[in-house]
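Dear H.,

Thanks for agreeing to be a second pair of eyes. The structure we're designing against is below in token form, covering all 130 positions.
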């Protein structure tokens, strides 16, 4: 998983203001569009995108953690192997990046939900989280 993939997966969050401006009417146009349905669909798309990214990032973290563990074990057996050391460091760096992406996700999600709630709160109430 790379930064490009995450960028593509975050498109819905990056475009939320535009999406809301083009699909959810202001009060003066409220009668012409079913804003509650539009907000509901956008909310469901957002939740799906957030869950999907969360799964992908956590899956990558799990896989990379496993590789790091394996490389550490191999490194203990072959302390002189510089190629192994380089590979281990590369995977550790990748793991740290992915863990930091989880924090970025929280910021992205919070920002999107804030914008969504400002615009859709009178049209749609998201279900309570369990």
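And this is the sequence the design step returned. I haven't edited it by hand at all.
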């Amino acid at each position: 998983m790379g930064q490009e993939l995450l960028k593509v997966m975050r498109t819905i969050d990056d475009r939320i203001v535009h999406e809301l401006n083009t699909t959810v009417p202001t009060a003066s146009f409220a009668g012409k569009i079913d804003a509650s349905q539009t907000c509901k669909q956008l909310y469901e798309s957002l939740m799906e995108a957030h869950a999907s990214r969360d799964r992908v990032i956590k899956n990558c973290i799990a896989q990379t953690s496993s590789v790091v563990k394996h490389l550490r074990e191999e490194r203990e057996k072959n302390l002189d192997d510089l190629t192994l050391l380089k590979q281990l460091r590369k995977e550790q760096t990748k793991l740290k990046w992915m863990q930091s992406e989880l924090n970025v996700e929280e910021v992205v999600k919070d920002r999107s939900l804030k914008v969504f709630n400002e615009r859709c709160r009178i049209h749609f109430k998201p279900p309570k989280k369990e």
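Two observations from my side: The chain has five helices and no strands. Residues 34-121 form one domain.

Warmly,
E.
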